[in-house]
Amino acid sequence: MTPDIPRMTGTDFTPSWFDTARVNRSAAERRASSLTARRSVKKDWQAAWLLRAVTCIDLTTLAGDDTPGRVQRLCAKARQPVRPDLLAALKVDPITVGAVCVYPTMVPHAVKALDGSGIPVASVATGFPAGLTPLPLRLAEITYAVEQGAAEIDIVITREHVLTGQWSALYDEVAAMRAACGDAHMKAILAVGDLKTLSNVYKASMVAMQAGADFIKTSTGKEDVNATLPVSLTMLRALRDFEQLTGQTVGFKPAGGLKTAKDALSWLILMKEELGTRHMMPDLFRIGASSLLGDIERQIEHHVTGRYSAANRHALT
Question: Could you give the domains of the chain?
Answer without folding.
Answer: 22-306 (3.20.20.70)
